[in-house]
Amino acid sequence: MAEGQRFDPSLVVEAARMLSRKPTIPTVTTDLPDGYATLPFDQFVGIRAQPSGMIWAGENRGFTVEPLHRGYVFSAPVSLFTVEDDTVRRVTFDRSKFDYGRVTPPPVNVDLQFSGFRIAAGHERPYEVAIFQGATFFRSLARGQNFGALARALILRPGEQRGEEIPFFRAFWIERPSPASGFIVIHALLDSESLTGAVRMTLRPGDVTFIDVEMTLFARQVLDHVGFGCTMGTFLSGPQSRRTFDELRPSIHEVSGVQMLTGGGEWIYRPVNNPAALQVSSFVDTNPRGFGLVQRERDPGAFQDDDQRFELRPSVWMEPLGEWGAGSVQLIEIPSDSELNDNIIAYWRPRQAIAAGSETTVAYRQAWCWQPPERPAPLATVTRIRQGRGSQGRRRRFSVEFSGDKLADAGIVAATRANITATPGSVQGLRLWPYPERKSMRVGFEIDPGTDNLSELRLVLEAGGQPVSETWLDRWTW
Fold first, then answer.
1. Structural contact between residues 472 and 442, judged by C-beta atoms closer than 8 angstroms
2. d(Cα 446, Cα 391) in Å, to the nearest integer?
3. Pfam family of this protein, just one (predicted)?
């Protein structure tokens, strides 16, 4: 849809359908001015739009949009359009609308397009609420948070030896919001070697920021490993991790685990780790009710980091809209020595491959939040995890602490038992320490793996055959 054309969301879908009938056209990334592809990060982020380049600034619409320059690792061009009074308006590149800081501006009359855009929300005190930049990546946050976890509209073949395929956005159409609406709508056209797609995202910022995502995908080829609701984040070190670094800070992570609500109604929490070798875990389910990467640690003292403020990073909760059928929540944990790497990846992988030439629709709601809007309450949740050397041989000692209102009830506490398994391996020295005055219970045990180098652990507190807590899962590797 070009300048001056009447906008209709169905035209984005039709554009994706028509594009899927042709081979993908390689993205041109070699047209950047000299030095822009190798700009240091600190210089690149210094390139910001001038007030005259901010879309809808001064119109009191509750949102402003800042076009983002190309450069650094963001070399792929993206076309930006606005939709005003149902009419498409092209956002033209104009170097005079950017402050280049320490960077030499590009030549005059060169159309570089853009690398993405940033959204600020609020009337009196606007704050950055979302960034769409690079491939199909985007970030958001709730009021009072720092940017952290990263979402992807689509992920293809991650962690496979044949290599990951990276879809990318070719164009965005951003609807001008009405002043009192409280939301902004973004349409996007995505492309990749094996598929195309039309994406509609409705963003509602606040104490919880919601993004409703609707995708229509057109497969050029068979898609046997596709991921929906993908989130990525950093986990370098923490109390549950065996890897240690020569670091002043006791913990370095913006996500602490994967939270899941299965189709059968079971609440599961799996802490993430920085493994010595690549780890891929699959949590099989049918019609999941929710999942996501969460940051449970909110105590600044756990990080001792006055710059990064990891305790202010968002949790990201995915709620499927409609039935997603059979598949699995996939968790990929990648070894990392740098906190700059998003080494934790979680997404939904459908069991059934998507046939070539087919059309697929997917919808889900993201919550960028302090804690997921759906919570395990009244079940107790995992609040502390520790592990260390066991009493002998290859044994490993664990301490898992649960907290919740149920654990203040003397009757429930007296009836509570720990249902724990290790596969393979055996559980030794199981003990429970109730602390009703602080509404918690600590479970201590050792795992004896025998001659095995991997054990899948499962623990849930039960009373009278019913769960008192969420289910804690973990993978021990030697």
1. no
2. 8
3. MdoG
Name the 3-class secondary structure at 42: helix
CA separation (Å) from 42 to 101, 103, 182, 256, 373? 10, 10, 33, 28, 36
Contact indicator for 293, 231 with CB cutoff of 8 Å: yes
pLDDT at 26 over 80: yes
Peptide bond into 378 cis (omega under 30): yes
CA–CA distances in Å: residue 100 to residues 3, 42, 95, 109: 28, 12, 9, 16
Contacts 24+ apart (CB under 8 A), 122-126: 122/62, 122/205, 123/60, 123/62, 126/64
User: How does pLDDT run across 332-366, given as a tens digit for each residue?
Assistant: 999 999 999 999 999 999 999 999 999 999 999 99
* 443 and 470 Cβ atoms separated by less than 8 Å: no
Q: Are 51 and 96 in contact (CB under 8 A)?
A: no
- Mind listing the pLDDT tens digit for each residue in 259-299? 999 999 999 999 999 999 999 999 999 999 999 999 999 99
What gap in Å lies between CA 218 and CA 19, rounded to an integer?
A: 9
**N-to-C CA span, the chain:** 56
Distance CA 299, CA 297 (A): 6
CA proximity to 272, closest of 349, 329, 224: 329
In this structure, what token pair is assigned to residue 192? 């990749």
For residue 11 the two structure tokens come to 């035209």
Query: Domains of the chain by range and CATH?
Result: 9-369 (2.70.98.10), 381-477 (2.60.40.10)
Q: Closest Cα partner for 231 from 356, 140, 324?
A: 140
d(CA 332, CA 277): 11
Backbone angles phi, psi at 198, to 5 degrees: -115, 130
Question: Nearest CA to 173 among 200, 155, 154?
Answer: 200
What lies within 8 Å, CB to CB, of 162 at 6+ separation is none
Q: Which of 163, 164, 168, 165 is nearest to 134 (CA)?
A: 168
Tokens read off for 275: 């493994």
Q: Which DSSP letter does residue 114 get?
A: B
Contact, 211 vs 201, CB < 8 A?
yes
